[in-house]
Amino acid sequence: MIHSKIQETFVPIFERQLRSNESGWLIGDSVTWIDFFLADIVDKLVHRLKPENVPILENLVKHQKKVFSLPNLEERIKQREKYIF
Prior knowledge:
This protein is mainly alpha-helical. Helix content is 62%, strand content 0%. It has a single domain (2-79), classed as Glutathione S-transferase Yfyf (Class Pi), Chain A, domain 2 (Up-down Bundle). It contains four helices and no strands. Helix 2 (33-48) packs across helix 3. It comes from Panagrolaimus davidi.
């Protein structure tokens, strides 16, 4: 049920925005707070969705990995504790 809402509303909005900006970021030519926000939400969704539903987030997961691979942030993410929320 929740995956259908995500697929119908959340995913198309952010995928459309990513496609419209050639930089690969949501807004402008460099990473902004909204990129961090989306990456965090996608990370949480991936851990909550059933594995068969994760492919609906494929393009957003690519963006999340781009954000999480930024210098300094990548190392911090590896060290942080895992929380369910």
